[in-house]
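User: Here's a chain of 86 residues. Predict its fold as tokens.
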Amino acid sequence: MRYKGFYVKISPDTDLHRADKDGNDILCKGFTIEVFADESEKLEIDVFSAAVVLENSLSEVEQFAKDYIGCEEKEYRRMIDELSEY
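Assistant: Prediction complete.
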């Protein structure tokens, strides 16, 4: 998926580590979301996950990714600018 000039790869994941209400580590199903600067996927700028507290639909995960990227967009662009100076 392409969003705001970034390339986003969403993959199902069955090994997401979370804490339950008592603070115990548990494994959840969900999605791993990778954000790249370009479609070659050589410059990864972020990785985050979404556990299945969502309805587990791809459209909900895509919206979650878009919302997250929207919040982090300035930082992502700053990172890309810094890396392009090297």
